[in-house]
Amino acid sequence: MAIKLSSEEKRVAKVRMSELNELYRQKAQCEVLKKSREEDLKTQVAQILDIKDKKGEAQPSKVKLPILMNLLEEMYNQGVNKKQEEYELMLEYRRALDQIPKDQALPLLDVIAEIKGINADIKYAFATREGEEEDTAAILPGEIIDTIALIGKDNFKVYKTEELEKAGFKVPEPKEEAFNYEELKRELKEELGDE
Fold first, then answer.
1. Number of H helices, E strands in the chain
2. Long-range Cβ pairs for the range 51-57 (8 Å, 24+)
3. What is the pLDDT of residues 89-125, one digit of tens each?
4. Which residue has the higher pLDDT, 47 or 78?
5. What are the tens digits of pLDDT across the range 11-58?
6. Beta bridge partners of 156
7. Cα(166)–Cα(177) distance, rounded to whole angstroms?
8. pLDDT top residue among 119 and 80
9. With contact defined as beta carbons under 8 Å apart, do 73 and 21 qualify?
């Protein structure tokens, strides 16, 4: 499939690609900040609950993050506790969270809210916008919009990997894609001059 875009379609595609790239860069930074804050909180909980390895060091990997997050949401965001069957462990985490200063626990919730906002902005990137007729994605064919979104997601993976490495986290191996869009992505990048 050879991609041929009019100059107006190219301009709009480039605007959307640039917007998505910036949003995905921001999301990658927030995701790494979230991971860092989760690790910090898990370490503090492990220390408070005396969850240690054979060397006597805190073992944050044994702290169950979903339960901890459930409690954090319940305690500070009036969330609903969905894990009643693990209540005893949650009580221990609650005790640990009570000993962690609020200003050290809340930043994790802040970065999660920021990620949700960026996700909403990403969805809005292709929305038809009143008063922005010249840059509306409505003039782009559906496969171009889908391809721009795929390129943006690929760029997000690269940005997140870079941010994780900079922050000192172990980077997981990339997963195989179910459908190979590589040729379509390559053609669009060539058409837009983004190679």
1. 6, 0
2. none
3. 888 899 999 999 999 999 999 999 999 999 999 988 8
4. 47
5. 888 899 899 999 999 999 999 999 999 999 999 999 999 999 999 999
6. none
7. 25
8. 119
9. no
Beta-ladder partners of 52: 58
The length of the chain in residues reads 195
Q: What's the pTM value of the predicted model, to 2 decimals?
A: 0.63
Q: What string of H, E and C letters represents the secondary structure of 62-114?
A: HCCHHHHHHHHHHHHHCCCCCCHHHHHHHHHHHHHHHHCCHHHHHHHHHHHHH
Evaluate whether 105 touches 97 at the Cβ level (below 8 Å).
Answer: yes
The encoded tokens of residue 39 equal: 């690790």
176 SS3 class: coil
Q: Which of 157, 71, 82, 80 is nearest to 109 (CA)?
A: 71
Task: Count other C-beta atoms under 10 Å from residue 70's C-beta.
Answer: 19
CA gap 105, 17 in Å, rounded: 35
18, 36, 93: which is closest to 63 by C-alpha? Answer: 93
58 pairs with which residues across the strands? Answer: 52
Is residue 11 classed exposed, middle or buried when 0-12, 13-18 and 19+ CB atoms within 10 A define those classes?
middle
Q: What is the Cα–Cα distance from 140 to 76, expressed in whole angstroms?
A: 43
Shortest CA distance to 107 belongs to which of 1, 170, 33? Answer: 33
Evaluate if residue 195 carries a pLDDT over 50. no
